[in-house]
């Protein structure tokens, strides 16, 4: 009798869970993300909310932006622009950013990506997100933490003199075996201009520094447009991996660096 009862309770519990997952709303999906901040338009008629997959760190970050009215109703409207902006003692600068369009999370949610090139540091080094909403420029203060593992590197090319920033995009959830490997390259043309770069060719070698071995069957990332490059990386075991990359233009080395991935 006892086990029948337990079974019945379990059944009810599972049924309830199943029900929940069926009417999961975009708002619920968004609430599982990291809430970065809210800002109101100057006339207080709109509230723009910014979310991200995780707390913001140096490197590539995906953002989710939703606009609501004062009653909390979603307005299906994206900010005209969304730009990262940093204040430093002697200068101000932007950073690479991508506008990715409507999100699959739900109606009225728009996706962006930003590559933060350095961490916030108190009052001296402050980041903001600048939003253009219906012609109004709004400024949302944000905090960017250093990344515990190296997810971005930069160099000035000895051949072309260009300053390039290389950011890790995928894998976000690495596993043993073959993983999608995606990175993005941007050029710092000026403090405010950070266009994507599609002309590079890339070679790389994964390495486990603690054990001194690499892995077979990797595929070099190739350009897929918008500054992104896609290939495959093979992790033969878990632990800390270092991906050593060489970035070339016209078969001439522009520079090199590495990413760290630990799982
Ligand atoms: Cu800076």
Write the layout of secondary structure elements.
Blueprint: H1 2-22, H2 26-31, E1 34-40, E2 46-52, E3 59-69, E4 74-75, E5 81-87, E6 92-93, E7 97-102, E8 109-116, E9 126-133, E10 136-142, E11 152-156, E12 163-170, E13 177-187, E14 200-207, E15 219-225, E16 228-235, E17 240-249, E18 252-262
Bound molecules: copper (II) ion.
Copper (II) ion is lined by residues 86, 88, 93, 118, 125.
CATH topology of the largest domain: Immunoglobulin-like
Number of strands: 18
Share of residues in strands? over 45%
Distinct helical segment count = 2
User: What small molecules accompany the polymer chains?
Assistant: copper (II) ion
> Largest sheet, if any?
6 strands, antiparallel
End-to-end separation: 45 Å
Structural account:
The chain is built from two helices and 18 strands. With 263 residues, it is mainly beta. The protein has two domains: 117 residues, Immunoglobulin-like (Sandwich); 111 residues, Immunoglobulins (Immunoglobulin-like, Sandwich), CATH 2.60.40. Strands 1, 2, 3, 4, 7 and 8 form a six-stranded antiparallel sheet that branches. A five-stranded antiparallel sheet has the order 11-12-13-16-15, with no helix packed on it. A four-stranded antiparallel sheet has the order 6-5-9-10, with no helix packed on it. The protein is globular, with a radius of gyration of 22 Å. The N and C termini lie far apart (45 Å). About 3% of the residues have low confidence. The structure holds copper (II) ion (CU). Copper (II) ion (CU) binds next to loops. The site of copper (II) ion (CU) has 5 residues, from loops.
